[in-house]
Amino acid sequence: MDSRPPWHLILVAHIFLASNPQGIPAHVLVDSGATTNFMDMAFAVQYTVSPCPVESPMLMETIDGWVLLSGPIKATTQPLHLTIRSHEEAIQFYITSGLHFPVVLDLSTSDTQWLLNRFYYSQSKFLQSERKERKKEMKEENERKKERNSNFTVLNILELIIYKPEYK
């Protein structure tokens, strides 16, 4: 069995930088499990993509709970002009190391029609304010879940104490 991703999830894109206005061709993996867009550090260094520090370093974890070995993400890019076929948009990437592809796009980047094996891109998916709002909402929801789970645990412990049968 081939462990590589299906080829319809690997696209060729061109990334345009001030230092390279003709565009840099790059293989892009569209990752259905990614929650944001990533660029490999080696690719960023090779093409002198200027990193911008993030406010606080972020640990990234895989779907099975493993923290990335590359350590916390400390930098992002400015929005970069990216084209895939006739589609164009500005995308900001988190910079990390050890990726198998130079660029990874999260699936929310595109509107997908899986049955046709085609990707249709929406022009408005990358507005920073929308992304920040979505992240804030997700963080708040996670906090509510943690609170509910901790309350549930306390209630279960109290129930055990209250309803503990007496043995004679």
TrEMBL record:
<protein>
    <recommendedName>
        <fullName>Retrotransposon-derived protein PEG10</fullName>
    </recommendedName>
</protein>
<dbReference type="Pfam" id="PF08284">
    <property type="entry name" value="RVP_2"/>
</dbReference>
<dbReference type="InterPro" id="IPR021109">
    <property type="entry name" value="Peptidase_aspartic_dom_sf"/>
</dbReference>
